[in-house]
Amino acid sequence: MTLLEIKNHVMFQTNNDEDDIEDYIPFISEYINDGYDRLVKAYDKQHVMTPNENYPPLTEDEDVPLTPEWTHRYLADWASWLIYRNGNPQKQQRGMAFREAFLDCLARIQAEGGKYGETVGLSKNFYNIPK
Q1: Which of 42, 45, 44 is CA-nearest to residue 74?
Q2: For each of the chain's 131 residues, which pLDDT tens digit applies?
Q3: What is the pTM for the complete model shown?
Q4: CB half-sphere exposure, 82, CA atoms < 13 A
Q5: First to last CA, the chain
Q6: Do the Cβ atoms of 84 and 14 come closer than 8 Å?
Q7: Helix pair angle (72-84, 3-13), 10° resolution
Q8: Residue 50: phi, psi to the nearest 5?
């Protein structure tokens, strides 16, 4: 998916018209890039927001995330969650499904070992297990 397609998917998921995307432009790209940074961190243990030639932030509408294709739609889920999280309790509840979907994506990436197929021990993923 391109950045524009991801933005349009966010608008659809949040029940907004694609024509209203200009109202959301100041923060929608930031929300998508925040999700992209989290995906890249799980996938390749790098950050997007720091100067990085391997994974630059998504800026132009034709930009395509450099993570596997199946992860791209989850960027829209993360941005949808960030839009809903500051709303009333009903909107926050609606947004939780998008948040959980994104977190499931991160868990799948980590379970598959990311870019290099390196799985980690379970104790590193569960914080409440006594050592």
Answers
A1: 42
A2: 999 999 999 989 988 877 767 777 778 989 999 999 999 999 988 888 767 778 888 889 899 999 999 999 999 999 999 998 988 899 899 999 999 999 999 999 988 888 777 655 444 555 555 54
A3: 0.81
A4: 18
A5: 42
A6: yes
A7: 40
A8: -85, 160
Three-point CA angle 129, 110, 55, nearest 5°: 135
In 3D space, the residue among 71, 67, 49, 69 whose CA is nearest the CA of residue 59 turns out to be 49
Both tokens assigned to 30: 């930031």
Rounded Cα gap, residues 39 and 25, in angstroms: 21
How far is the C-alpha of 90 from the C-alpha of 109, rounded, in Å? 30
Residues 28, 62, 100, CA angle at the centre, nearest 5°? 45
Query: Please, are residues 72 and 14 in contact by the beta-carbon 8 Å criterion?
Result: no
Contact 105, 71 (CB under 8 A): yes
Give the length of the chain. Answer: 131
Question: Running DSSP on this structure, what letter comes out for residue 14?
Answer: T
d(CA 69, CA 98): 18
